[in-house]
Design goal:
Oligomer: single chain
CATH class of the largest domain: Alpha Beta
CATH architecture of the largest domain: Alpha-Beta Barrel
Number of helices: 10
Bound molecules: alpha-L-arabinofuranose
Structural class: alpha+beta
Distance between the termini: 68 Å
Largest sheet: 10 strands, mixed
Number of strands: 34
Length: 662
């Protein structure tokens, strides 16, 4: 190396060392904490849950039924079922066969007629929802409806077989001679199996009709028979959600009007709830799920009950006479809208009417005499344009004429800006709409950049329901989106802006909520599950930290007199909780450098001990999975010094600080 080159190289090394030393210096940011000039209340509904039956969220997910197509109603009625050694599969084997019969008097018309010719050979098998999950030592309620038609079939034998086809548990049920009867038995699982199958054989030859072949874990949420999957509801419960929005999403609208969600068809006797194909079964060519139906075992009564269990306000969303505008965009003519409006009025009566009312009586007969105290109703999901506004007006008039206290949620379309959004907001403002739903699926950068979105919103206009949002690591509708730390961190940054603007933003929810690891259509999703387990994503823990620490009143947290909203990649929000006498500060650092914050509580009286909850990850690309949740809140305690709260906010982290007010 020449002398000149040597000097140059030393200079480069020195300047690199200088910059690296500078980068390693943890800079201190002074923040001031104070009361807002006028009180800003945080609504109890601030952080809630968006539930939609997408990604096997209901059948195959939250609804704990383990048999797919239990009453043979799928368009392809053999879906989920397989016959072995049967004449229809192989003409040389005359063991038996299954045909589908229909009873026109029933809502679910189909049932299976099984002809057993050789009971030694005939086997009927159900594959469950991508397998049947069994937990060692747990009990499972097996039931079916059967009518003995002819011959001498004396018993139905059912067994659970593991992935290798090996029988692990069996029950046998004797058959009575006369009419349709319900039969029940209980399985005990001697081992844990993720993808078991149910196998049915017969003792004796003859013909029987079978329907509603069902298998449920006994260990459901609150131990309810035919209930919900416990681990999944527990995760929702842990969020302490302020509301539960159901049943969607575009599923409310349907691909066609005929396929819209009709709440009246989802209540009453389970076997009579009319089956419907799931909209999402053909939602994406890259993730076709033709075996995705809606049994409505999880129907509107169960949604209300779940809301009550979670301590969340029920927020049903109804069709406004417009099929999904991304699909057929079918429209109900204005003169034919009445039945749709009546559905909304009837729903409010179903939820709130006393037992003397027609719909209140149905609720009472289903086991809930006490009203559900419905306070919100959504008119349409993600509609846009003049057709929506025209229909919304009719709903609004009718609902408020009869139920002036019920708050109506209207929509501003699928995007957070643009022509449809601007038009929707302008019209809804003029109509004095109460709460407007906004949806945003966008990049992590968009979320960080838009943390101040609501700072300038009109305080006298409608309130905002940030009803569907999620940062997309690849792009909207891309199958490879990941629930990684970058997406969660960017949502946390954005959420500081939601909370700071709680006088405008009344409700918020991440979407979608659930995804089955083998049955999903849409990514990313808040909670992932398979037949046995579930795990919480980093995005879930962000939601949990905000929701569990939402407080009751907004406080100001400022740097140099300005809200902390992205300057030097720092975001912050602060609240007090007048019930628990706490101050809660949430700080998000999206920088690759740690920062020290020095918070001065000014005239606010604060205690000494501070709980610091840290959520961070080794990499922005880090994720949780079924085996481990490396990204999970960690807690420690430290003390305030000289009345000031000084702490380090690591690079790329969310920190929640909690302290008592004196
Ligand atoms: O959350 C998935 C879908 O995204 C919802 O069904 C719809 O409202 C939105 O387009």
């Amino acid at each position: 190396m020449t002398t000149k080159n040597k000097i140059f190289s030393i200079a480069i090394s020195l300047s690199a060392a200088f910059f690296s030393a500078q980068n390693n210096t943890v800079r201190t940011f002074n923040l001031d904490l104070k009361e807002t000039s006028t009180p800003i209340k945080i609504q109890p509904t601030m952080y809630g849950i968006f539930f939609e039956d997408i990604n096997f969220a209901a059948d195959g997910g939250l609804y704990a039924e383990l048999i797919k197509n239990r009453s043979f109603e799928f368009d392809e009625p053999f879906t989920g079922w397989k016959q072995q050694n049967t004449k229809t599969l192989s003409p040389n084997l005359d063991s038996g066969f299954l045909t589908i019969y229909s009873d026109p008097a029933k809502t679910n018309k189909n049932y299976a007629r099984i002809t057993v010719l050789n009971d030694k050979n005939y086997i009927l098998e159900n594959e469950g929802f991508r397998g049947i999950g069994l937990h060692q030592g747990e009990q499972y309620d097996f039931s079916f409806d059967l009518e003995n038609v002819s011959g001498n079939i004396a018993a139905v034998n059912a067994s659970l077989v593991d992935e290798n086809g090996k029988e692990i548990s069996s029950v046998s049920t004797l058959i009575k001679r006369n009419g349709w009867q319900k039969y029940t038995a209980v399985f005990k699982a001697p081992k844990t199996v993720e993808k078991a199958k149910l196998r049915i054989t017969f003792t004796g030859n003859g013909i029987v009709n079978m329907d509603m072949i069902s298998l449920f874990p006994q260990d459901t949420w609150k131990g309810r028979k035919g209930g919900l999957r416990k681990d999944l509801v527990q995760k929702l419960y842990d969020l302490q959600p302020g509301f539960l929005r159901f049943p969607g999403g575009c599923i409310v609208e349907g691909r066609t009007l005929a396929e819209r969600y009709q709440w009246k068809k989802t209540i009453g006797n389970i076997a009579d709830r009319e089956y419907l194909i799931n909209k999402w079964s053909t939602g994406f060519p890259h993730r076709l799920t033709p075996d995705y139906g809606q049994s409505f075992g999880l129907g509107f009564y169960e949604y209300f009950q779940l809301s009550e269990d979670l301590g969340a306000e029920p927020v049903p969303i109804l069709s406004c006479g417009m099929a999904c505008q991304f699909n057929t965009a079918e429209l109900v003519k204005m003169e034919d809208l009445d039945p749709y409006v009546q559905d909304a009025l009837d729903l409010i009566e179903f939820a709130n009417g006393d037992s003397g009312t027609k719909r209140g009586r149905i609720r009472t007969e289903m086991g809930h005499p006490k009203p559900f105290n419905l306070k919100f109703i959504g008119v349409g999901n993600e509609q846009w344009g003049a057709d929506y506004i025209e229909r919304y007006k009719v709903f609004e008039k009718a609902i408020h004429a009869k139920y002036p206290d019920v708050k109506i949620i209207s929509g501003s379309g699928p995007s957070p800006d643009g022509e449809f959004f601007e038009y929707g907001w302008k019209e809804l403002k003029q109509l004095n709409a109460q709460i407007v739903d906004e949806h945003y699926y966008n990049s992590p950068e968009w979320f960080m950049k838009n943390a101040g979105r609501y700072d300038e919103y009109d305080r006298s206009g409608p309130k905002v329901f940030a009803g569907e949002y999620a940062a997309q690591s690849v792009g909207v509708l891309k199958p490879d989106n990941k629930n990684n730390w970058l997406t969660a961190l960017s949502e946390a940054a954005f959420m500081t802006g939601l909370e700071r603007n709680a006088d405008v933003v009344y409700m918020t929810s991440y979407a979608p909520l659930f995804a089955h690891a083998d049955g999903w259509q849409w990514t990313p999703d808040l909670i992932w599950f398979n037949n046995l387990k579930s795990y919480a994503t980093p995005n879930y823990y962000v939601q949990k930290l905000f929701s569990n620490n939402k407080g009751t009143d907004v406080l100001k947290i400022e740097r140099n007199g300005k809200a902390v909203s992205g300057q030097e990649k720092l975001y912050a929000t602060a609240v007090k909780d007048v019930k628990t006498h706490e101050i809660i500060i949430k700080i998000v650092n999206t920088d690759t450098q740690a920062k020290t914050v020095n918070i001065k509580p000014g005239t606010l009286k604060t205690g000494k001990n501070i709980t610091k909850i840290l959520l961070s990850a080794p990499q922005l690309s880090s994720e949780n999975n079924f085996d481990a949740e490396p990204i999970k809140p960690k807690e420690e305690i430290f003390e305030a010094k000289n009345g000031e709260i000084s702490t380090k906010i690591p690079a790329n982290s969310l920190v929640v600080l909690k302290l008592k007010t004196d």
